[in-house]
Amino acid sequence: MTIYDHTWLKAEWERMGKPERQYLDPDSPLLGWEDVVTHENTWFEDLEYRIKSKPYINWDHVSDKFNWIAEDDDGEACLYRGEPSRDNYSWFYQLFEFQDVGVHKSFTQGTCDWKDSLVMRPVVRRE
């Protein structure tokens, strides 16, 4: 197994979002994505690396009244009219100003820490 020192790349990925990794060999007993520990500066050629993903939804299918999406500690994801705040375990906004995203087919759960899951609807400039 070859070991590479990608300290600079890892630092750049952490600036963009926390990385995770998985074994490339489908017969590996260790399946699935796992966190890359911050103090590890060596990366291995038999592992695949990526930035942890944030939740995704096709905003074209979401009412214009919702502008934010976020996942709670328990994995529950909601759309919010305004920018939500977070407490110890969840995101919250004004009463009845949010909607569960489970009804949207295009929703894909993120793999990032729930505290990093807040995403704002992209702003589209119309001319």
What does this protein structure show overall?
The protein is mainly beta and 127 residues long. The protein has 2 domains: 3-51, no CATH class; 59-120, no CATH class. Helix content is 8%, strand content 28%. The protein has 1 helix and 11 strands, in the order βαββββββββββ. The strands form 4 sheets. A 4-stranded antiparallel sheet has the order 10-7-6-11, with no helix packed on it. Strands 3-2-5 form a 3-stranded antiparallel sheet. A hairpin with a 5-residue loop joins β6 and β7 (77-80). It is elongated and about 45 Å long. It starts with a strand and ends in a 7-residue tail after the last strand. The mean pLDDT is 81.
Low-confidence spans: none
Report on the biggest sheet: 4 strands, antiparallel
Number of helices: 1
What sort of overall outline do the alpha carbons produce when their principal axes are compared? Answer: elongated
Précis, in short:
With 127 residues, the protein is mainly beta.
Layout of SSEs?
Layout: E1 3-5, H1 7-16, E2 19-23, E3 34-35, E4 42-44, E5 47-51, E6 68-71, E7 77-80, E8 85-86, E9 91-92, E10 98-100, E11 119-120
Antiparallel strand pairs: 1-4, 2-3, 2-5, 6-7, 6-11, 7-10, 8-9
